[in-house]
Design a protein that fits this description.
Blueprint lengths: L1 E6 L7 E7 L7 E8 L5 E5 L6 E7 L2 E7 L4 E6 L14 E2 L3 E3 L6 H16 L9 H18 L6 H17 L4 H8 L10 H11 L2 H6 L7 H8 L2 H7 L9 H15 L7 H14 L3 H14 L12 E3 L5 E3 L7 E7 L4 H17 L3 E7 L4 H10 L7 E3 L9 H4 L7 E5 L5 E3 L9 H9 L12
Parallel strand pairs: 1-7, 6-8, 12-13, 13-14
Antiparallel strand pairs: 1-4, 2-3, 2-5, 5-6, 7-9, 10-11, 12-15, 15-16
Helix pairs in contact: 1-2, 1-3, 2-3, 3-5, 7-10, 9-11, 10-11
């Protein structure tokens, strides 16, 4: 995905950064691309997107959003920031970008059209107060208008955007949880990357576990979290709830609420981290494992820009190796296990990447097997893997590599800069586009000043 554009002359020489949210539960930003706006106002941002999503771009405080799809090329114009805005407290100040060459079926055009339609229903020129019954009627009327207006639209992301934006209006005026959850959540797919769906989900389930546990005399929610720190018990505690009988939905509600409770008094942060670690290990859903891992990374201060934790581990020759050995070099660090089939499928891809980038960065793999025997057997079976592959669980270590990187499962990826800081945490696996990141880092970029879309 490429965003090419021209910015107003007031932005010349300033960096423009593109961010994605690592998930729609934590809403933590991850910088995906950056460029410096040239003297002619031109810039170009490129990154790998595995699906449709909304991204945020910033030029200092000036901020705008763009809906992007994989393999598209977008051309945009960025106008001058409204001088009426006050530049205080590093607040994000919105600018309304133009999208070049788009047609009425393009996602950004559809979203803009819907926003205008939405505002015509709910924002009056005279600021007249809308009562709850009036809000209900207008939400229903808007849905009917949209059904007709967008009946030929095939974009599933946009259709969900409309549906759940209207649902959020109903939630904001308390239309009733039976109406909302039965109508929009139960027996519907979970749309993890659609911000309208996840905003509606949040409005329905923020604080839900506390309410659902009220009146249960056997045990309190706080006791299960703080004293037991047992995910399976916590999940079983809510299994009979009328809305949480489905395992997938119940687990996502638990994740959402644990993130909330981590910042509240009365809940033990270490207990919450323990439960999240169990979800990483026990969950059958990759999306939930990823969300839990993102939470743990934040809670354990494994943030982009922080110092990469150092560690020691056993090398193939039996000697101890240390991350400090690679000081001053970029390092692509991965954790794997011979019992984890997916992590093993990534190893040949790492071998291929090493052929291309081995002179630019160090590839370092950490085996998380319990047995040194299975680790050594794996090395003997794969003699062509010629980068450092170390064993984490060596006896005598007070903290292993797995411990200091808070790896809860048996697969994880990190990119460490030559300055010894975390550049990507977590980093994409080889199959998820890390090669693109390497190309950005180690290959010169040639600019094409032609802007457009698709």
């Amino acid at each position: 995905m490429v965003v090419k554009g021209r910015a107003h002359e007031s932005y010349i020489g300033k960096p423009i950064k593109l961010f994605s949210e690592i998930d729609q539960v934590t809403h933590l930003d991850r910088r995906e691309a950056m460029d410096t706006i040239a003297e002619d106002g031109y810039f170009e941002l490129t990154f790998v997107s595995v699906g449709v999503q909304r991204v945020k771009c910033k030029i200092e405080q000036a901020t705008f959003y763009l809906y992007i799809q994989p393999d598209f090329i977008y051309g945009i114009t960025v106008p001058e920031l409204d001088p009426a805005y006050k530049y205080a407290n590093d607040a994000e100040l919105p600018v309304n970008i133009g999208v070049i060459g788009h047609d009425s079926t393009e996602l950004n055009a559809l979203v803009l059209d819907f926003e205008k339609l939405f505002n015509s229903f709910f924002i009056s020129e005279d600021d007249r107060f809308l009562s709850r019954p009036m809000m209900f009627r207008r939400a229903d009327s808007l849905q009917k208008v949209c059904d007709i207006r967008y009946k030929t639209v095939q974009n599933d992301y946009f259709k969900a955007h409309v549906k759940y934006t209207i649902a959020s209006i109903n939630a904001s005026v308390s239309r009733g949880e039976n109406y909302l959850i039965n109508g929009y959540i139960l027996n519907q797919p979970i749309l993890y990357t659609n911000e309208a769906y996840m905003d509606f989900f949040s409005s329905c389930f923020t604080g839900y576990l506390k309410e659902a546990s009220t009146g249960k005399s056997s045990q309190s929610l706080q006791n299960i979290i703080n004293a037991e720190a047992d995910y399976q018990h916590l999940s079983a505690f809510f299994k009979e709830d009328k809305f949480l009988k489905r395992d997938t939905l119940r687990e996502l509600v638990i994740l959402h609420n644990l993130w909330q409770y981590y910042f509240e008094e009365g809940y033990n942060p270490e207990a919450i981290k323990s439960i999240l670690s169990q979800i990483v290990t026990l969950s059958k859903l990759t999306d939930h494992q990823r969300i839990a891992h993102n939470m743990l990374s934040f809670m354990n201060k494994l943030l982009v820009g922080a110092d990469a934790p150092s560690f020691s581990a056993r090398a193939a020759n039996g000697k101890m190796g240390s991350l400090q050995m690679f000081k001053g070099r970029w390092v692509y660090l991965n954790f794997f296990s011979t019992a984890n089939a997916q992590s093993l499928r990534e190893m040949p891809k790492i071998a291929s990447l090493k052929k291309k980038f081995g002179d630019k960065l160090i590839f370092l793999s950490i085996c998380l097997d319990d047995s040194v025997k299975t680790y050594l057997n794996y090395l003997r079976s794969n003699p062509k893997y010629d980068w450092p592959i170390w064993f984490s669980n060596e006896r005598g270590l007070s903290k292993t590599a797995k411990d200091v990187y808070f790896v809860s499962g048996t697969e994880a990826y990190f990119l460490i800069s030559q300055l010894g800081t975390l550049a990507l945490c977590p980093a994409p696996a080889p199959s998820e586009g890390i090669e693109y990141r390497f190309n950005l880092l180690f290959k010169p970029k040639r600019k094409n000043t032609k802007t457009g879309i698709r």
